Amino acid sequence: MFLYQIVNEQVRILACRGYGGTVRIPEKVGELPVTELAEYVFSNGEGRREMLSLAGNNVQMCNEEGNQASYDEKDLPPEVICERLLDLYLPASIRKIGNYAFYNCFELNHLECSSSIIDLGSGLFTGCSKIKNLDIHIVDGSRSCMQGIVSELRQELYVNYYVRDKAARLIFPEMYEESVEHTPARIVFREMHGCGHMYRYCFDQTEFQFHKYDALFPHVRVQESDRLVCALAMGRLYTPLNLLPDDRRIYESYLREHLVAAGEAALKDNELFLWLASEYCREQAEFDLLIDLASEKNCTELLSPLMDLRHVRFPVKKRTFSL
Fold it and tell me: Domain boundaries in the chain?
């Protein structure tokens, strides 16, 4: 359930209560669109208490379907704040998220939203160190908030990028800053580590540029682990949205050279693992490598389709005898 107020015929979400860590903000409350999350909405502390105090008596309740509801005080579920928030789904109607809305939501690991959010508050993801998965739906013809979000999240980030009826799997590597003091000059320098900051610049205005993203592959090969590099390459090849032929060849060459590492990166996704075997195992020995890997990791559900695929690709020759 949600606490909300109506401002200019639009709904502003003030707080959330529930028993689970997955929150789905409704797109409408009655006939009015939900367009804003208030500042500190999922946080805790003085900022949140001040926000609720300023809302005054103009506060109402609704359920997840956006229907008005009322509860006795003793029947209210607990507040979903800080570590209780795990997954958050925002409707396409959201246009604004207030300052520090997710402050210290350190267990939040997944966010799904539209790119049409106009106003992202400051300090939005402060303390949100576990967010690794982002689903973003691109809205044509509107300014995208994608760069604003990925720039705030400095950890390794897995992004499902949806536009119209197409999709792409993207990885933004980790980045972090370090302050280095030059004592004689009394100057502090900021040094950026990891190639993640370069990936977060793959935008023109606010539009994501796939060719800029793919052009950074030589950097990620040098600076990141084989596991992450293989996962990035597989994501682009598996969902090749706007992938140029030259970039495809570079990704494919890397996968063939690091087949076992690619298999390890794909183990959690059965469909992706079988796609890797089908597309990039040219020799029977390569199939055997992936079969051994699946067996070693106890992924028994992969063994049967892998064996079937190998049998189709490399059928056993019938023996002939002559007298």
Answer: 1-131
Q: What share of the chain is helix, strand, coil (3-state, %, to 5)?
A: 35, 25, 40
Q: Which CATH class is domain 1-131?
A: alpha beta
Q: What is the Cα–Cα distance from 251 to 237, expressed in whole angstroms?
A: 7
Mean pLDDT score of the chain? 91
- Measured at the CA of 240, the angle between CA 262 and CA 144, to 5 degrees, comes to 115
Dihedral sign for Cα atoms in the order 39, 45, 47, 53: positive
Tens-place pLDDT, residues 129-158: 999 999 999 998 889 999 999 999 999 999
* Block residue for tokens 């020759």: 317
Rounded to 5 degrees, φ, ψ at 200 are: -80, 0
AA identity, residue 195: C
Q: Identify whether the C-beta of residue 148 lies closer than 8 Å to the C-beta of residue 120.
A: yes
Whole-Å CA distances, 32 to 221, 241, 252: 49, 36, 49
Tokens of 162: 């949806």
DSSP three-state, residue 187: strand
Reduce the secondary structure of 242-290 to three states and give it as a string: CCCHHHHHHHHHHHHHCHHHHHHHHCCCHHHHHHHHHHHCCCHHHHHHH
Task: Report d(CA 165, CA 119) in Å as an integer.
Answer: 26
What distance in Å separates the CA atoms of residue 213 and residue 198, rounded to the nearest whole number? 9
Give me 41's structure tokens. Answer: 């909405």
**Alpha-carbon span 291 to 298, nearest angstrom:** 11
State the pLDDT at residue 126: 93
Residue pLDDT, tens place only, 177-216: 765 565 666 676 566 667 899 999 999 989 999 999 999 9
